[in-house]
Amino acid sequence: NRLPLTKRLGTALYELVGVAAREAFLSDNGRFGLLVGDEAHHFTQTQVGAAVTSDFSRDGRKHLAAIGLASHDPATDFQGAAHNLIPNRFVFRQRDETLARNSLEWLGVDLEEAPFLLSILREETSPPIGPGRQVPEERRGEMFMRDALNRIGRGKVLGPARLDRAAAITSTPTGGGRSEHREPEAVR
Q1: What's the pTM?
Q2: Cβ of 112: how many Cβ atoms within 10 Å?
Q3: Which class for 85: exposed (0-12), middle (13-18), buried (19 or more C-beta within 10 A)?
Q4: 11 CB-side CA count, 13 A
Q5: H or E element, residue 69
Q6: Which terminal CB of the chain, N or C, has fewer other CB atoms within 10 Å?
């Protein structure tokens, strides 16, 4: 009751999208379905959202469905038996020490055994450098990951190989709903 109307509406929309995705993807239609969301707490903070993420975690594989949620604090956002069924996990740079620690522990890292990984995640993963504190393009997307066999290692998300798509994802949207971007030199 203390949440403002916009927050309640936002939560309801997350739940609606989750329920619609569950109905569409957790059925035997022979097609792969993926529910992707940012800010996992919007899905996991309510009973409906927690039920949706649990259903995807428990039943997704047999229905050719998956869920991908991004979280700043997986220790808080992903709890319970269903979330232990998430085999593939990705942890990107986290500057805050507590959140970095939580992320690595969720990944399965024993920080008593490998405490150096905390500083690597915080300081050497996609590090911002220079006066503008920007991450150089060649360092973007660096992460730690855990695969389905519980192997933990370094990884990197690569951007699109096509120049037009690379330009589009590095652009800033304008108020008109279209991205303004400069074409790379090679395209001109």
Answers
A1: 0.75
A2: 6
A3: middle
A4: 15
A5: strand 65-69
A6: N
User: H-type helices in 3-161, by residue range?
Assistant: 5-25, 41-44, 47-59, 74-77, 97-107, 116-119
Q: pLDDT value at position 91? A: 94
Using CA atoms, how far residue 59 sits from 25, 45, 85, 108, 110, in Å, is: 10, 20, 10, 23, 29
Residue 77 is predicted with a pLDDT of: 85
**Considering only CA atoms, which of 86, 104, 85, 84 is closest in space to residue 94?**
104
b/e 38-75 (16+ beta carbons within 10 angstroms → b):
eebbbbbebebbbbbbbbbbeebeebbbbbebebbbbe
For strand 142-146 and strand 152-156, is the pairing parallel, antiparallel, or unpaired? antiparallel
Confidence at residue 183, expressed as pLDDT on a 0 to 100 scale = 47
Low-confidence ranges of the chain (pLDDT < 50): 178-188
Q: How far is CA 57 from the centre of its chain?
A: 15
The two structure tokens encoding residue 153: 């290692």
How far apart are the C-alpha atoms of 100 and 46, rounded to whole Å? Answer: 25
